[in-house]
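Most newcomers find our protein records easier to grasp once they have seen one. Each record describes a single protein and holds just a pair of labelled lines. A learned vocabulary of local backbone shapes supplies the integers on the structure line. Nothing more is needed to start thinking about how sequence determines fold. The record below serves as our worked example for the rest of this section.
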Amino acid sequence: MTTDSNEQALLKGLAANDRIAIETIYRVHYSMVQTLVINNSGTSDDARDIFQEAMIVLYEKAKSGSFELHAQLKTYIYAVCRRLWLKKLLVNQRFSGDLANAPETIATEEDIEMYEHRTRDFELMEQALQHLGEPCKELLESYYLRKKNMSEIAMEFGYTNADNAKNQKYKCLMRLKKIFFGHYNNNTL
């Protein structure tokens, strides 16, 4: 597999210290690396450090002139960041695996596909929530995001008791599921 012309242009821009190319790489790929690091015992600061190190590796490779990218740019960045993060975990003794026997290249296509699928699902759920309308949207956000109990929700929304609020929450949740799954396979909201 070879990279497309946009990715080749980004690599050339990176090698030439083009600010727009560098910002594009950060904007498109940083959240993937941040998710990788945070989901594996890291912090946002760790993610920034790892991504910066990967950018230096990518810059040096792009600058060499002989670098040929045989995968998508996101796959390469993910693999480099994963390797750097595993090394850092090993140094900090937060990783119990044997890095010496780890392969030099790591298959990341499945991880990236899972990340992209999960991101798509979250985006679809957010869109379904927007289509849900009020007061259901607000009620579900109060319960699931703000962690309010049913008594608080009953008072906030004017229900006579917590059981009525619970019944309304259930109805709203069923409407949300219907909207989400109705459009999930079509990917249209």
Observations:
- The longest helix spans residues 109-132.
